């Protein structure tokens, strides 16, 4: 069999109108699929230049396939099991800015370029004060985007009509506003010209977004069958569920150049995305993040296995219905319906969503996905959410780096991994100290969680001791059946 390429498929030639920061599974199974639909239905005619945001990535693999790859969508649609495959052909160029910096910057001079889309994980939209040398590729995403915008400003001599539509998909609150803030701060750190900063702020068009689709990624366990079915080799197959939702805050210019709501997909331009955001992040993403260390340390590898396990499944449901739903100010019938739909999506028989793929950047994910629920629950209920704190303790235990005799392939910011290692190195058998130090890690949480409730430190210490001495299966069963620490022998 041959590698998928333009030899096998008649790939349209399109002008590069969209630059996408990120080449990971989610963008390819969600954003590029939507762009494909817009192209196919004549709403736009746009190619995508994919920019690799980190020194490591897959742009070379995508380029070897002429930007072509297969998307497999599988799930339950209107009560029926659905499986379908599609070749996505929207990628027109692949750029590694760390080795092709001038090529990357040259796109800032393009008359065709209209849209910037990004998904660089929750940790991606942040100011790196060391991004001060723009003669070389900046490390951070805001640094790269700032360099591109500066090149554009200089090339078009500050033309206010040459601004771009900037659409971040990172899972943080008000991601468009936050990216705008980071760009402004970084420009000031670099003492950039005030006229450029004004152009950056006013000529460009920022929006905030919410994205929702479960994307397990590369189906390694099925790849041979897929190749037999398609008749070609594809090293970038990506798998996703049928369900999808993209909510963007209304912005007239963005709606004009990127009319993603005009082809019948579940895309919404809304006056206020916050209710959608809170519901999705707290329930779907929050339950993902809560279940990962608990289920993985019980020897479970996938989301489906986790929710179908009688103990882990009950842990997840009780966490959502008893600890998350009460913190969201929406009608409870809507909350129950959405929560049930999330559990149903987790049980999708066609999706093998690896827990370790969700574990990427798990420190930041706890802060963005679970910490708001913890704070809100204590404020509303005046007591502690036991399952959420158990999940936090499991996160600490997870970062010991061992599942039985097996090393866990931890993937996080190196500084965070170093801190987790330091916390465990200073443990010395004192669970209360470990809990206090982890809860008080203000650099990660932007707060000292020890102060949220008088019993929080002792509660986390109790859970850590149970996990460490009795094992995770015993500890989680005690929490599920008793709602407290582990008393089993």
Task: Characterize this entry briefly.
This protein is 47% helix and 13% strand. The protein is an alpha/beta fold and 489 residues long.
Keywords:
489 residues, single chain, three-stranded mixed beta sheet, six-stranded parallel beta sheet, 21 helices, alpha/beta
- Gross morphology: globular
How much strand? 5-15%
Distance between the termini: 56 Å
- From the alpha carbons, calculate the radius of gyration and give it in angstroms: 23 Å
Number of helices: 21
Kindly state the percentage of residues in helix: 40-55%
Compute the number of strand runs.
Answer: 14
| Derived structural class | alpha/beta
Sheet with the most strands: spatial strand order: 5-2-1-6-7-8
Major sheet description:
6 strands, parallel
Give the averaged pLDDT, no decimals. 94
Uncertain residue segments: none
Topology:
Elements: E1 16-21, H1 25-29, H2 31-40, E2 47-51, H3 59-64, E3 69-77, E4 80-88, E5 91-95, H4 101-106, E6 115-118, H5 141-155, E7 165-168, H6 175-189, H7 194-203, E8 205-206, E9 209-212, H8 223-230, E10 238-240, E11 245-249, H9 252-257, E12 267-270, H10 274-296, H11 303-308, H12 310-324, H13 332-346, H14 355-358, H15 362-381, H16 386-398, E13 402-403, E14 406-407, H17 414-425, H18 431-439, H19 442-445, H20 456-470, H21 472-482
Parallel strand pairs: 1-2, 1-6, 2-5, 3-10, 6-7, 7-8, 11-12
Antiparallel strand pairs: 3-4, 9-11, 13-14
